[in-house]
Amino acid sequence: MGAEGDVLLNAMLKIPGLKFRAVCDIWTEYNLKKAVNLLKKYKHNVNAYEDYQEMLAKEKDLDAVIIATPDFWHA
User: How many CB atoms lie within 10 A of CB 23?
Assistant: First the structure.
């Protein structure tokens, strides 16, 4: 939920009918809290995770996963 995630999240919040169920970020004190608080403002009740493997194990009914990484990690 750094800069890339922030851009994607704000763009996706404009998609009608899209519901967020979970967010994951290793930086819990800033990025994860920021994502959860923003989604709560838009009435999304999300579970927060620091470990993506835990999230995928517990969230069995996901239709999609968005992975937002900095440009230098894309390769």
Answer: 23
